[in-house]
Amino acid sequence: MNFIRGTQLEKLTKKDVFLVGLMLFSMFFGAGNLIFPPFLGQSAGEQTWIAMGAFAITAVGFPILGVVAVARSGGLTQLASRVHPWFAGVFTVSIYLAIGPFLAIPRAGSLPFEMAVAPYLSKGVSPASAMVIYTVLFFAVNFWLSLSPGELIDRMGKILTPILLILIFVIFGGALIYPIGSYGAAVGTYQAAPFVQGFLDGYLTMDTLAALIFGIIVSVSIRSKGIKDEKAVVAGTIQAGVIAGGFLFLIYAMLAHLGAMGGAEFGLAKNGAQTLTHVVTTLYGFPGAVLLAVIFTLACISTSVGLTAACSQYFSERTPLSYGLWVGVITLISMLLANMGLTKILVVSIPVLVAIYPIAIMLILLGLADQVIQGDVFTYRITVILTGVVSIIDALGQSGIHLGKLSQIITSLPLYEQGLGWVLPAFSGIVVGLLVKGMRKKRSTREFVRS
Asked: In the chain, which end has fewer C-beta atoms inside a 10 angstrom radius, N or C?
């Protein structure tokens, strides 16, 4: 420790910073993160790196900023309570449901089926029946492990994450030595607006939502190293975030490159799991595909158990129901939704993420700018309300629900066609809030002088 003018300066060692960064990376890096960059590369083709630049903003940048914002605020509930305690409760529950039984856990259950089972089914076997059998077995294991997770999740993460990383490097190295194709032409929205589409694709990782929960975990981990000064905790969180973000971007870039080469070679697949399977099969044949499928299955079990345990713990602390009962409820719901299939889950997830992702982004930005906002309730509320109104109405519209003139107003906003109609109202809310705050401050100053 160093002492200057009687002040104890605390900071993490470089080793501790690196370990916390790796821990944060492993928390973000689930099997689902492997499927979106390849699909982006496959679809974007020659526009891959433009789309990837935008993808990095919402899939890397905002998650890391979210961790920092929550660490500085003392937790998601404390940050969201600056809007309103009622909002904090509803928003937190929404995030747990999204990263839990309604989207992320079913995705974890259906993804390995797409890779490990579906490609090798006999012609006479019904894929739907096979998926039912597979998901029953998958979620039975999920239920059993989630009842007493102990250190299992942490150990699996320490083993499986390095294996997944090694596998990706092996696949990427093989593609460099034996190129399987070249970048093709962009298709769909990637052709006209690759940057905007890449930005929206980053929603699908759901990492910005997860970051709002992970932030407090990172700060607690740093404090466990003996760091008590808040500035040092935030500095350590930022440093760890940069390390985690660097690893995430590197892996995403490699996967996008694989998908871009595979897209021209195989044509469009339905999702990123199929894209990656095509690439690995071409490079390493059937053994490579089997290995990839096994790793994905184990990684998905690890992700599923972790999310089930986290959600069950959260809801058991806030309801009369026990932890074990919540494990059963969440597992059952996830199993039923998993049978929709990966492609349908991804389609259904888009409106949900369109509704809550912009709110999460603006809450993070407000938290980071709190030194300027100074916890001003009106600024927080007007920004979140304007963002939420636009994003929720947009999500309803994408689900086929239209609200007459209100929907027409929303659809006329700048950038709406690009999926970013919430941007102008959101930042207008910040401007209006700060102007009102300034006017109140001036009025208070004048009244003080008069008195």
From this structure: C
